[in-house]
Amino acid sequence: MESGGTETGAAAPAHSGTGRTRGAGGADRTGGAAAGSGRAAGSGRTGPSGGTAGSHGPGEPDRAREPGGAAAAPPRRDGGGATRERLLTAARELFAERGYERATVRDIAARAGVNQALLFRHFGSKRALFGEAVAHSGLEQLRTTPPDRLVEAVLAGLLAPQPDPEGHGDGAGRSLETLLRSVGAQDEVSAAITALGADYARVLATLSDTEDRALRADLALAWLLGIGLMRVVIRKRPLAEADPAEVERLVTATLAHLLEGPHT
Question: From CA 34, how far away is CA 109, in angstroms rounded?
């Protein structure tokens, strides 16, 4: 599943030979898991990046500021839907570049060209924005990836360079770690993962003709998530240090048998 950054949006690796392309059957939803969206927040709410969202000195233009005090572009006047999309786009880019912790609310709002208060008004919190950005990216991957290449596309994100134990590394890797650590939590990110996982499972199920295709798809998805947890969060050797190409070869061959093999 994608992270909040490439957002695991890298092109899918070479075809592994799973052999079939089927319709994704409604996978290209435009909604996504909008957990925590639409909750209004007061303009004096303190944002995760520090400081007070939407607060400005007397006579100061109502605009976000980039680090170092440079004024960003004035907020654009448009419908709420356009503002929301710009915030999601800016969030996905910054989560990919810097990871969850270093992508501040102030910087996301500045890149989108809006006031921080609008970010809280549309999403409620930074974590809710992260969850929705992940869901949006995942749905885009489902929309653009043929079902028989979905396993390779997911693995490409899971096997990308990951942060070291001190937290240094690629921003997309740090965002993926935040995503995986959120599995099972009772918050907006977990809600987004749950809803997105159901969409991935439905697409994977189209690769099987067996009566228990839904079970096989869930098993495939569970294994992929387990690989991510072991490699990215727990960092268990030898998986954490294994050659991505070798891991991909072993996993795709086994999942092809699981999803397309004869019912036994």
Answer: 19
